[in-house]
């Protein structure tokens, strides 16, 4: 039996920090009852649930392990191919656990088709192809479906095709994530019925009508502020980021769930490469600057992505959950930047030991 007990740890319970307590781990899960095995004295440090990055691109063990090194124990990959690559990066002990959208749906002429995704099978131009396309992604192991939306006329997936893909995915019990980084694409993503909209418009904030619909229809946002700020700077329009921050503020004020995601990647040709793992701590700070409280930002990287991506075995520190744990130095409710001061990380009860 693999068992240990963390003693004298202040635990973030989703709302506050507890007084020093003991957290027992047995066979990769948080357990109840008396402590067994090794006793690890946390000396009053803060214990968080393992962090979840709601938007990453992981194409190597190095990138996956960088997530874990920074306390990100789960990464939600938003485009990965071939299927063998995703499979090869899953299941390794003591490092980040990955979920994946597999191959995304793209249009024939958008930036993704020109620069990033060269697989012909990714291009979907006819609504009649939607059911077969979704079935193929699920057969390859996709945990959810990704659609790349561009502004109308921008060469992305057309509105009718996107709606057909969403309907086909929902019929098979899969959530749909829509990429939308412009105002027009954002509206198309809302119209499509996608469950999760990732990114946010640069420049002007999202249409208030879209925000209202997202709240009323139970949609979720992963704004990727780190990426949007990086793109604004790359294109020489740093003022564009103000619209992104305003969108997040409006979504949060309306009660739309906002999840932490970074678009971390090391892809050649991408205008901005957010660093795996480290960028999530930057994202948390930007979410707080946009109006979330530190506790809300922490939930955006723990319990909320677990809930909205059906990861019911993680996202909190309580008996029966995976022992995905991050020990940090400092009080993140007083200063969200404390999350970056990672002392130790456990992935399903196995400590991550950087090589």
From TrEMBL:
Gene3D superfamilies: Amidohydrolase, Urease, subunit C, domain 1. Residues 46-349 form the Amidohydrolase-related domain. Coiled coil: none annotated. InterPro entries: Amidohydro-rel (IPR006680), Metal-dep_hydrolase_composite (IPR011059), Metal_Hydrolase (IPR032466), Metallo-dep_Hydrolase (IPR051781). It comes from the Bacteria. This is Amidohydrolase family protein. It comes from Nonomuraea maheshkhaliensis.
């Amino acid at each position: 039996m693999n068992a240990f007990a963390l003693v004298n740890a202040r635990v973030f319970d989703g709302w506050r920090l507890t007084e020093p307590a003991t957290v027992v781990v047995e066979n990769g899960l948080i357990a109840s009852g008396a402590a067994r095995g090794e006793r690890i004295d946390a000396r009053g440090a803060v214990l968080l649930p393992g962090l979840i990055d709601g938007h990453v691109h992981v194409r190597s063990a190095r990138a996956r392990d960088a997530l874990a090194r920074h306390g990100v124990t789960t990464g939600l990959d938003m485009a990965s191919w071939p299927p063998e690559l995703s499979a090869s990066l899953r299941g390794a002990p003591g490092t980040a656990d990955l979920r994946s959208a597999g191959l995304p749906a793209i249009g024939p002429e958008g930036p993704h088709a020109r620069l990033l995704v060269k697989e012909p099978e990714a291009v979907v131009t006819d609504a009649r192809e939607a059911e077969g396309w979704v079935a193929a992604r699920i057969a390859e192991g996709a945990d959810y479906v990704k659609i790349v939306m561009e502004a109308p006329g921008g060469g992305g997936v057309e509105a009718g095709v996107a709606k057909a893909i969403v309907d086909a995915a929902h019929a098979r019990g899969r959530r749909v994530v829509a990429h939308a980084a412009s105002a027009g694409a954002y509206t198309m993503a809302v119209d499509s019925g996608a469950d999760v909209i990732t990114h946010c418009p640069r420049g002007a904030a999202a249409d208030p009508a879209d925000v209202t619909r997202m709240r009323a229809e139970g949609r979720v946002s992963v704004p990727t502020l780190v990426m949007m700020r990086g793109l604004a700077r790359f294109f020489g329009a740093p003022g564009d980021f103000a619209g992104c921050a305003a969108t997040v503020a409006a979504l949060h004020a309306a009660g739309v769930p906002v999840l932490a995601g970074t678009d971390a990647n090391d892809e050649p040709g991408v205008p901005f490469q957010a660093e795996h793992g480290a960028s999530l701590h930057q994202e948390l700070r930007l979410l707080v600057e946009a109006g979330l409280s530190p506790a809300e930002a922490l939930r955006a990287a723990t319990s909320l992505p677990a809930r909205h991506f059906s990861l019911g075995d993680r996202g909190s520190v309580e008996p029966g959950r995976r022992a995905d744990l991050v020990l940090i130095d400092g009080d993140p409710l007083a200063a969200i930047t404390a999350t970056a001061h990672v002392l130790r990380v456990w992935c399903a009860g196995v400590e991550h030991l950087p090589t």
